[in-house]
Amino acid sequence: MCLFCDIANHKMTEAHIVNETEMTISFLDIAPANEGHVLIIPKMHVDSIVDLPDEYVLDITDVSRKIIKAFGKVYGAKGYGVMQNGGANCEFGHFHFHVFPRLENDGYDWIYPEGEKEVSENVAAKLREAMIFGNENKYKQMID
Ligand SMILES: [Zn+2]
Question: How far is ligand 1, taken at its centre, from the CA of residue 95, in Å?
């Protein structure tokens, strides 16, 4: 059992829960990027989206949309951010999906500068190539 399993099982009562479904529980991040920063976690201890059953991924997507709509109502947020670190980089070893509101002049930004155009094209090409499983890569087919 981990901290997030405890939250999913309502054993960690300090968590500020904002939503719960059969498959997920959502609560405020204790170190928020912005006020309203929510973590959506599956009620299943996996550290990667690769190991997460499709229905959990769909539930996380559905819940994230609802939370993003709530950001608009609560903060008047016109934008949002989502983030997910997985595998060996998954804190607590329990999948969690970050969703946070973006506000005008909130100062949040990527600090890693975008690479040269050629570097970016090379990276994009390698990622597209790596995503080909059979004939599934419709994007590559579109641009070829
Ligand atoms: Zn866990």
Answer: 8
| Distance of CA 81 from the midpoint of ligand 1 (Å) | 24
User: Is 96 labeled as catalytic in the residue annotation?
Assistant: yes
The two structure tokens encoding residue 71: 């950001």
pTM of the complete model: 0.82
Q: Domains plus CATH for the chain?
A: 3-102 (3.30.428.10), 110-144 (no CATH)
Which residue from 57, 43, 49 is spatially nearest to 4, judged by alpha carbons?
A: 43
User: Who contacts 53 (Cβ-Cβ below 8 Å, separation ≥6)?
Assistant: 44
- Residue 115: band (very low, low, confident or very high) from pLDDT cuts 50, 70, 90: low
